[in-house]
Design a protein that fits this description.
The termini are close together. Helix 2 crosses helix 3, helix 2 packs across helix 4 and helix 3 packs antiparallel against helix 4. The chain has one domain: Four Helix Bundle (Hemerythrin (Met), subunit A), CATH 1.20.120. It has 5 helices and no strands. The protein is globular and about 45 Å long. By secondary structure, the protein is an all-alpha fold. Keywords: Transferase.
Length: about 130
């Protein structure tokens, strides 16, 4: 459980930084870059947090983000599996290519779709580790 609490604390810090970036004015290209980088950190910490929790519950042999999100959905840790899987696609786009138009689209998805998912995850895990 200590590993989960440590990962959760790191996830919370990244989520706070992501919230700060998303709340800024969105007409600055530097903002997109910063917010997307914070999104990438938050994503990494989210799937690793879920993986640690699943392992704590005895669910092992899951090593990819896709497998972790699917398993977390199947056991009720997260909702809206489609959006969680879309996060993987968008994260891969941001890591492997840079296009300002794509960055703006993903920035908007972070604000509208992904930030709420991360916030839901934070609340859910907080309930589970109390």
């Amino acid at each position: 459980m200590e590993k989960i609490k440590e990962r959760f604390a790191n996830f919370q810090k990244a989520l706070l930084r992501l919230k700060e970036a998303v709340e800024e004015r969105s007409d600055n290209p530097l903002l997109y870059d910063g917010a997307i980088q914070r999104f990438e950190f938050t994503y990494e910490l989210a799937w690793k947090l879920l993986k640690a929790y699943l392992e704590y519950q005895g669910i092992v042999n899951i090593s990819s983000p896709r497998a972790v999100f699917k398993e977390a959905f199947s056991v009720g840790l997260i909702e809206n599996q489609e959006k969680w899987l879309k996060i993987i696609e968008d994260r891969n786009l941001t890591v492997h290519t840079y296009d300002e138009c794509v960055a703006k689209i993903i920035f908007e998805r972070i604000k509208s779709d992904y930030l709420p998912l991360f916030i839901e995850l934070e609340k859910r895990v907080e309930e589970l580790i109390k």
